[in-house]
Amino acid sequence: MRAAYQYKLRPTKQQAENIDKWLSMLCAQYNYLLADRFNWYEQNRCSINACPLVCHLPELRDNPDYYSQKKTLPNLKKTHPHYGEIYSQVLQDIVKRVKVTFDRFLKGDSNGKRSGRPRFKSRDRYRTFTYPQMKDGCLQGNLISLPMLGKIKVVLHRAIPDGFKIKTASVTKKESSGYYLTLSLEDATVPTIKPDFNSESITGVDVGLKEFLTTADGETVSIPQHYRKAQKRLRVIQKRVSRRKKGSKRRQKTIKQLGKQHKKVADKRKDFHFKTANNLLKKYDVIAVEDLNVKGLSRSKLAKSVLDAGWSSFLSILTNKAEKAGLLVIPVKASGTSQDCSSCGVKVPKKLHERWHDCPNCGCSLDRDHNAAINIKNRAVGHSVLKAKSLLSSSRIVLEAYTVCEASV
């Protein structure tokens, strides 16, 4: 079982300077390796027999893959001796990061989905480096020993569970709040939780902008609107930033204040999402949700409200927590959930401002979001996993009845 814990780091002034220096050098090396890959890609992307008649064919060279780029690191330390100050495995991890980024651009991920063209990173956007391996006992009390950085104080707001070993450690610099340590933990003795849920304990969830969500039982969770409540304060600080001279220390200080304010909003939203997901999973074993195109909705007139609600983040948290608890979250088709009647299935057209559902066919009358949540639940009932679960339970009942009858005979 794998888990990730994040802690606040309290480095000394010298350690903070070393971390910043490492990030600057690693950013330069990342951009260099990425440029090397792009150089090869631009020269060799077209086969020779497909070139135009008048063209310049450069000297072809081998593809700069993971291993060939890794072999360049010893020579890098000779030509640029200051790179010897960086721990070797941290430097090697940069090569791996470039490989993953470029492979996703050319080949796509495990699902075949390709990402966009990788970007070169500016120094203020390169914030993290990773130790791929950590020794046992590297964390002693509230001090963690990081190779070539020394022992750094950690704010251990929660203890590491017994039996878990630290596999990797990542150091991240956040301009608004300082330095953080992310530990990847593993315990091979803990088995993966297999889904074990009651298919009868199911509900549908309709997310919205009037209420954050409405369940099929009619329960609602009000929308907090964290960003809109913080807009007044954000507007004041943003004006200060725009009035400061570019490149000045006062402008940098004000940008840091703005980042802290945005972080407060993000933290409040994240806390709300986790608490809402926990409350749902305590009540239900199976939760049906809409398979929404949040990216498309964020380009509409309701963009600010949609992004403030954070539906995509909430659904991701809900799915992950359900998987860890052995429960189930089922995405269903979103089209027509608000228009169709949950009682008779007849389509009842409604505009966005019409918040009540009145069916002329069967007389069903209830809130629009409540009606949509029931439709989502009804669509999830036909899910193959739930069907298999119900068939399994029914076969057990038949088998038990047969056994009882056979015993009585």
From TrEMBL:
What sequence ranges are listed for the domain Transposase putative helix-turn-helix? Answer: 1-45
Q: What is the lineage of its organism?
A: Bacteria, Bacillati, Cyanobacteriota, Cyanophyceae, Nostocales
Where do the Cas12f1-like TNB domain residues begin and end?
A: 311-376
State the protein's name. IS200/IS605 family element transposase accessory protein TnpB
Keyword Translocase tagged? no
Q: Which family does it belong to?
A: In the C-terminal section; belongs to the transposase 35 family.
Superkingdom of origin organism = Bacteria
Q: Which residues form the Probable transposase IS891/IS1136/IS1341 domain?
A: 190-300
Q: Which gene encodes it?
A: tnpB
Record organism: Anabaena azotica FACHB-119
Determine if Zinc is one of this entry's keywords: yes
Region ranges (Disordered): 242-262
Annotated keywords: DNA recombination, DNA-binding, Metal-binding, Transposition, Zinc
